[in-house]
Design goal:
Blueprint lengths: L1 H20 L9 E9 L4 E5 L12 H11 L5 E10 L12 H10 L6 E5 L5 E5 H4 L6 H4 L1
Parallel strand pairs: 3-4
Antiparallel strand pairs: 1-2, 1-3, 4-5
The structure holds tetrahydrodeoxyuridine.
Length: 144
Amino acid sequence: MKEESNHHTIQMLIQAAMEARKKAYAPYSHYLVGAALLTADGQVVTGCNIENAAYTPTNCAERTAFFKAVSEGVREFRAIAVAGSPEGDTLTQYAWPCGVCRQVMAEFGNPDEFRVIVAGPAGAYRVATLREMLPESFGPKNLG
Ligand code: THU
């Protein structure tokens, strides 16, 4: 039963990430990314990458979703789905989150509970914990 509901939640999040990907503003890289962040209370907050002519102000889809949620007062999260690939309607690769986004996730997610779901080609996906993605990290515990 739990497996079934997990599968359903994952599919729903990937679908939301694919929808968010359509909003990506990526005129320079032409690499479109969408993210869907599941909050502890069951809301889904989406994000897309937002590029900039000056390049470095570019924000990844994952951080857009996190910053939207946190700026609305939400700080507890269960999972994020990421869907990224070069321009085109379908995914041709897995877009594992960049190091900066992993660090942002580590600020708000429990390393062994928060799940990162990366959508791949033809409906495939992979799941990892935050600890697997960012082992031995510097985080809130170092300062608290
Ligand atoms: N990007 C993301 O949005 N998320 C990732 O996990 C990897 C990279 C964006 C940033 C930039 O707009 C484009 O993809 C190419 O790096």
